[in-house]
Amino acid sequence: MSFIVIIPARFESTRLSGKPLKMIEGKPMIEWTWRQAQKAGAKSVIIATESAQVQAACEAFGAEVCLTALHHQSGTERIAEVVERLGLMDEDIIVNVQGDEPLLPPELIHQVAEGLEQHPQVNMATLCEPIEAVETVFDPHAVKVVRNIENHALNFTRAPMPWSRDTFSATSKTLPNNWHYKRHIGLYAYRAGFVKRYVAWPECALEQVERLEQLRVLWHGEAILVLDAVMEAGIGVDTEDDLQKVRDIFAQKLSANQ
């Protein structure tokens, strides 16, 4: 199996400016993410950024970098520019690894690429993991996914879906015993030709309401394969609090290895 990892790394993050270059144990966060991706068995790992500052930092630790346009609204749009500039074939498999995932296991990167390769009838694949706490079901920052019998996505939402009428009507909410909630992991594999079609579609109404770009795919009637992750995905970094949690995890790992 052959696949390419592209890591979108936007410097001007809305919630955490300069996020790719935030330091963790002496290295920028984007370097840790790149190092994890390097272990996944990809043909190449490319960092896509709009920032010359990020480009210089990444080239300093040996990464291949593509400097992209400033106007992109999503990581997928940034990836589409790389696909065009590199002249990738429509059937090439691209894995989108977010630049703020320094703890992402390489096994999951390989899993999502392999899943797409083994399901030629779909053009996009992603992963999910079990939700163990009812608080996560009601957390709008945790995206829930519901699948059909073929593990194709029926919906992605920030809301508690499905709504357990009998369980959630109680004053003290608990997880229902007749449903297993799944949290979406923001890791995607696509066929390169599909990426080019995707970015030509306008934002759909559901996407605008939920602020979830994968809903554009379902809106246009395309299937998304959603596989159960073979292990925990770890913590991504969206806020200063997330960054501190990740720094603490890295410090613990470093201390344990000494």
How does this structure look, described?
The protein has a seven-stranded mixed sheet, sandwiched between helices. Strands 2-3 form a two-stranded antiparallel ribbon. The chain has 258 residues and is an alpha/beta fold. It has ten helices and eleven strands. The protein has helices at residues 29-38, 52-60, 75-86, 106-117, 134-137, 165-168, 192-200, 205-210, 215-219, 240-257; strands at 3-8, 23-24, 27-28, 44-49, 64-67, 93-96, 124-130, 144-147, 153-157, 182-191, 225-228. It is globular, with a radius of gyration of 18 Å. The N and C termini lie far apart (37 Å). α2 (52-60) links the parallel β4 and β5 (64-67). Helices cover 34% and strands 21% of the residues. It has one domain (3-257): Spore Coat Polysaccharide Biosynthesis Protein SpsA, Chain A (Alpha-Beta Complex), CATH 3.90.550.
